[in-house]
């Protein structure tokens, strides 16, 4: 529950004598921990939207508070990972150049494989918006969120069984679809 305790949305969770919230909010370098623990490879399950094949239509109105809040959460959860990946690739390139010139370094290259969902979470959340209890839907409408809002906030709040099962199924199917790449990355022999 602590990993879902997004500040301002869900309260922190008490475990023994300490309170915990979502770690990604203050983890500005999410790859730092596994790298410092000695990882040679990092398999990353991301939550970034698949790249659109067509441009979004231009917004005809000023973004509302719900849209901005959703964008801020997207930034916290995906932009920090993307910048950290970019930084790791630059360090890997530096290590490669140093090795080519026989320059000793304590740095080592770290391989990564990033897997992102094949479907947009916001779209899936929109399709399951009516799973929210009526009281929650009413509260959301009061802050400007409806079933077809531009805000990704719904995808962060929707913990209803139908939606979470859909996310689990999507993750499983995406994993199966990329099984060869995952097995090759992990250097595991397929049975």
UniProtKB/TrEMBL annotation:
InterPro entries: Acyl_Trfase/lysoPLipase. SUPFAM superfamilies: FabD/lysophospholipase-like. It comes from the Bacteria. This is Patatin.
